[in-house]
Amino acid sequence: MKRLSLILLLISAVACADNKSNETLPIPKPFPEPEPVPEPAANAATVSQAEPLAEPEPNPEPAPEPEPERKPSSNDARPESHSSEHSAARTMKIQFDAPSEDYGDTVDSSKNKPDDIDNDVIQKLVESYLNPEENKPKQRVNKEVEKLINSSPFWNLNEAKAANSIKDEDMAQEWMNGYTNEAQKILYQVAVAGWNYFTNVQPNNKDALDEAEDALALFVKSSSKQAKQFDISKMNNPFLKREFEILTVDGMSALDAEKYGEFNEVNAKINRDFINTEICEFKGQNPCIIKFTDLAAILNNEKDLRKSAALWKFWRETIGPKLSSQYEKLMKLTNEAAQLNGFGNGRDMWLSPFELSSRSSPPKVNIMKSAEKIYEQILPFYQQIHAYMRRQLTAVFKDKSALSKDGAIPAHMLKSVSADNWSGLYQETKPFEENEGHAEEILGSFHRLNYTSKTMFIQAYRYFKYLGFGKLPTSFWKNSVFTRSWSKDMLCNPPAAYDMRDGNDFRVKACSQLGETDFKLAHKLMAQVFYQYQYKKQPLPFRESANPSVQTAIANAFGILSTNYDYLKSADLLADDTVKGEAVRINNLYREALIDFVKLPFDVVADKWRFEVFEGKINSSNWNSEWWKLKTQYQGVKAPFARKNDDFDPIASSAIAQSHSPALRHVVSYVMQFQILKALCGNSHSLDLGCIPDKEVIANVKRVMMQGASINWLEALEQITGDKELDAKPMLDYYAPLISWLSNTNEHDEMYLGWDGPETSFSENDVPAQRTSDEGTEHFIVPSEDQVAYPGGDCSKGQECLLDSTCNGKTCECNPGLFTFKVASSVNCLPGDPGMFGFEHGGSGLSIGLVPNENVSTSAPPAEEHPKAQQNHSKHMHHAKSAPSSTIAALLLPVLAVGFFH
Ligand SMILES: *[C@@H]1O[C@H](CO)[C@@H](O)[C@H](O)[C@H]1NC(C)=O
Ligand SMILES: *[C@@H]1O[C@H](CO)[C@@H](O)[C@H](O)[C@H]1NC(C)=O
Ligand SMILES: *[C@@H]1O[C@H](CO)[C@@H](O)[C@H](O)[C@H]1NC(C)=O
Ligand SMILES: *[C@@H]1O[C@H](CO)[C@@H](O)[C@H](O)[C@H]1NC(C)=O
Ligand SMILES: *[C@@H]1O[C@H](CO)[C@@H](O)[C@H](O)[C@H]1NC(C)=O
Ligand SMILES: *[C@@H]1O[C@H](CO)[C@@H](O)[C@H](O)[C@H]1NC(C)=O
Ligand SMILES: *[C@@H]1O[C@H](CO)[C@@H](O)[C@H](O)[C@H]1NC(C)=O
Ligand SMILES: *[C@@H]1O[C@H](CO)[C@@H](O)[C@H](O)[C@H]1NC(C)=O
Q: Which cysteine pairs are covalently linked by disulfides here (predicted)?
């Protein structure tokens, strides 16, 4: 029954998409988006910090030797005011080692012939989607985990004596040694199960991961109860004391079993509803098929303000009432858990990692005060970009009446669901029309040098070695996944570095594609791998970064370094005479600001609002109006429609619904990344250009990495930068060229800064000239996206074909051995023959068509038939999804087959 209705939905949706092919209707997904990986509970994160203490040293891998010191060469030292700004002659070249290590195969595995795809497994997945309750796993699949459960006294909840009853430090040390031994085993199993699932999405692997995580939760619960037997206040050894402090944080699992279960259920329900709720594009549409994941892409391409407004409203009015009482429950349970952890309320618990407070010690830092200070520092810049955007919007939407010259911006105009990511407006509002830098040249160099995805990581690795980081075990190159492989379904997002927690096995998982963007990603991930690799000798509870924000900040700082032109020239990726012009610099900064910088005020709002809920200052009777009060005050945006008391708009934001954790993390890591960059690049007066850093500063970074979680995030910050607190000044230095351009421009245009004016109307003269390239231009966010195309798409300008397709000179056609499957105008490459499932050759307006591989170039619609908007849209859809469309279409096949034959 359910199957049939699904098919009907599909077909009508497809027909619908076909009817209005110039609109941005998504193809509905027959399979739910993978839910975001839930935040590990505070204590799970704690335990996952744990690693082997008594490390048996025999290394199966060649122990990484210290790097042989490179001979200093004449051009080794960094010139004082090094900058690639205007003079190519001043390029500083660095020498990388000969690529002598065994990196294994660098053949691009995505070009390999596909393995057979197991239709039974897919069928099972589809069935469990259609009939969730009937498909509960009946027996344990993870035998290794099953063996561990209750295998030692550390698993025993009843083993613990009264809290603080043991004062003997030797006993505490002995307990800690035993604990680390046991924790190591279960953590390893969780890491293995996680890797297996994320790189090979199969129901079995999901069950195995769930079981491992459940077991870990069990272990954490009993071991942290046992840890509380020991009186921390009596401990003399500061390291031991900190270890116990880390272990005795319970987070949400402090709740009793029933309430903890309820918390997880409520959290999951909010997440599920957020992902699955469907809304209409217009009143009376039937069926409604737009979901949250489609919304961003649709808003991004919508030029009709009335449609954006309608979607904005439908989304909020559908999701809000549904989740209001659930959210109240979630906050209440979080407060209860906080109190059981010894905190006043959820706010104090959430902030404790930043305020360095614990059940036994009060905050050492007032992080919200820091956040306010940061906001004050960035406000002048934010007002500049806000004023500039406000004026530009009158041209983007050809409608100046929706805006006032000196007021807040209506939230639906910013091309994102929550007005927290303005990058959808980049193309239409960028400061300079000129090209976007040298992405094309870099991509060309990758091709010339026969790069594959893996080669980008090898280059990143050689850069880190040059900087003084040691070697990684060769197993890293063997076990990592650098690009999507055909044989397994992967969860590509987020790309991540994995410490497999046996002290020797480190990996990355990324579905990278050749290009500037993922070259940067490779450097970020390498920084994370080296972080994990450096702290591997720490005792178990310290085998974690000083704070996740520190790790992100360091990784992002290295990401910026990887864009430095001297480095790119040294790696032979740019010609020696390439210069990064002023326009390119300002455009790049502008794009980055629209994604990350404008999010900072939003983060402040998201946390302030939740803290007021935690503190009981607001409740469901007035929390919506408070939300808009804060949004207007900090972000300068307002609701486009009057809001009612029973509306619940906060939950329409992913930051609230999908991530029940402080948004402050982004603020801290983003601000800190520039403090670190500044430390690495010394007095370089053009921070946005990056630099090749001094090795002495790198040594500080390495030292911080080596100490893992034995130091806190402020100590890490101080050891790298000398700063004792967060400071937005380096960030403002980084953005300086953009800030000065914006303020000149706004001054010239006589724009009002701020949003507290009397709502003066824009005059005709205020509206900026229409962009020449406006209509019909591409709306890609990342320049390298200009260089990619999807199956059936146009690759005549040398675009790289994605998703298992190859360019035939004109269009991206499916790789040999694959079948081309057309749904409306979207083309998918499938391993199985859709003909086996009763499909016929498409034609005469039929939306679902089948074209054998050889015929693809004739049957793929020529590019002109793709209205631009739709093309862009489908690119975004592909891009945004963690599972590419080929997977989704593969899942779709058996469903349809079942429907037709039964
Ligand atoms: C498609 O368009 C035709 C005529 O333009 C209309 O009769 C039909 O109802 C439309 N189908 C859908 C699903 O909107
Ligand atoms: C679709 O395209 C046609 C012809 O190009 C145009 O007249 C119509 O307004 C478009 N519809 C929308 C909703 O953009
Ligand atoms: C993927 O996982 C399944 C189920 O655990 C396993 O049987 C299969 O061998 C794995 N595939 C690969 C290529 O590792
Ligand atoms: C202090 O505690 C750490 C961590 O448990 C341990 O490695 C170290 O040996 C202890 N130091 C002394 C002097 O006991
Ligand atoms: C911001 O929006 C753009 C375009 O919609 C999207 O590609 C990008 O991933 C978003 N960035 C973040 C950090 O959400
Ligand atoms: C790239 O590969 C081609 C063909 O295999 C080869 O001729 C060429 O020398 C390679 N280039 C480099 C820089 O390795
Ligand atoms: C909400 O807060 C107001 C005061 O701020 C209080 O009067 C009211 O009873 C509260 N409502 C609920 C449902 O707790
Ligand atoms: C390709 O298309 C032609 C004509 O459209 C058809 O005759 C031929 O059978 C097709 N090739 C295959 C392998 O189906």
A: 280-288, 492-511
Ligand 7: atom nearest CA of 620 is 13
Query: 228: CA distance to ligand 6 center in Å?
Result: 62
Contact criterion met (CB below 8 Å) for 203 and 125: yes
Tell me the angle at which helices 257-276 and 305-340 cross, rounded to the nearest 10 degrees: 170
For residues 783 and 778, give the distance between their C-alpha atoms in angstroms, rounded to a whole number: 10
**Alpha helix positions (H), 302-366:** 305-340, 346-355
- Adjacent-strand bridge partners of 848: 823
Three-state SS string over 157-208 comes to HHHCCCCCCECCHHHHHHHHHHHHHHHHHHHHHHHHHHHHHHHCCCHHHHHH
**Ligand 8: distance of its center to the CA of 850 in Å?**
11
Q: Whose CA is nearest to atom 7 of ligand 7?
A: 621
Determine contact, residues 420/599, Cβ cutoff 8 Å. Answer: yes
**112 Cβ inside 6 Å of ligand 2:** no
Kindly give the distance from the C-alpha atom of residue 327 to the centroid of ligand 7, in angstroms, as a whole number.
Answer: 16
Ligand 5 neighbour 423 (Cβ under 6 A): yes
665 annotated to bind ligand: yes
Higher pLDDT, 791 or 350: 350
Helix (H/G/I), strand (E/B), else coil: 136: coil
- CA-based R_g, the chain, Å: 28
C-alpha 632/C-alpha 634 separation (Å) is 6
Residue nearest to atom 13 of ligand 6 (CA): 449
Q: From the CB of 488, is ligand 3 less than 6 Å away?
A: yes
Residue 204 Cβ < 6 Å to ligand 3: yes
**612 C-beta closer than 6 A to ligand 4:** no
Stated as kind and residue range, the H or E segment containing 138 is none
Closest ligand 8 atom to Cα of 841? 14
User: What is the arithmetic mean of pLDDT over 195-222?
Assistant: 89
State how far the Cα of 893 lies from the Cα of 512, in Å rounded to an integer: 27
- Cα separation, 516 vs 440, in Å, equals 9
Ligand nearest to C-alpha 23: 2
Handedness of CA 138, 142, 147, 151 (dihedral sign): negative
pLDDT, tens digit, for every residue of 377-419? 999 999 999 999 999 999 999 888 889 999 999 999 999 999 9
Write the DSSP string, 450-470: T--HHHHHHHHHHHHHHHT--
591 in Cβ contact with 654 (< 8 Å):
no
* pLDDT value, residue 860: 29
Does 810 or 366 have the greater pLDDT score?
A: 366
pTM here? 0.74
Distance 19 CA to ligand 1 centre (A): 6
Distance CA 464, CA 101 (A): 14
> Measured in angstroms, how far is the CA atom of residue 202 from the centroid of ligand 3?
7
pLDDT at 894 over 50: no
Pairing of strands 637-638, 409-410: parallel
Residue 425 CA to ligand 5 centre (angstroms):
11
- What is the distance in A from the centroid of ligand 1 to the CA of 28? 18
Which ligand has the minimum distance to the alpha carbon of residue 125? 3
45, two tokens = 């994160």
CA distance readout (Å), 535 to 178, 542, 629, 704, 717: 20, 8, 45, 9, 17
The reply to whether ligand 2 has any atom less than 6 angstroms from the CB of 19 is no
What is the 3-class SS of 519-568, one letter each residue? HHHHHHHHHHHHHHHHHHHCCHHHCCCCCHHHHHHHHHHHHHHCCCHHHH
CB-based burial, 38-48: b 16+ in 10 Å, e otherwise: eebbbbbbbbb
Task: Kindly report, residue by residue over 551-580, the tens digit of the pLDDT.
Answer: 999 999 999 999 999 999 999 999 999 989
Placement of tokens 């970009």 in the chain: 385
Ligand 3 pocket member 200 (CB < 6 A): yes
Average pLDDT score, the chain: 78
End-to-end CA distance of the chain: 11
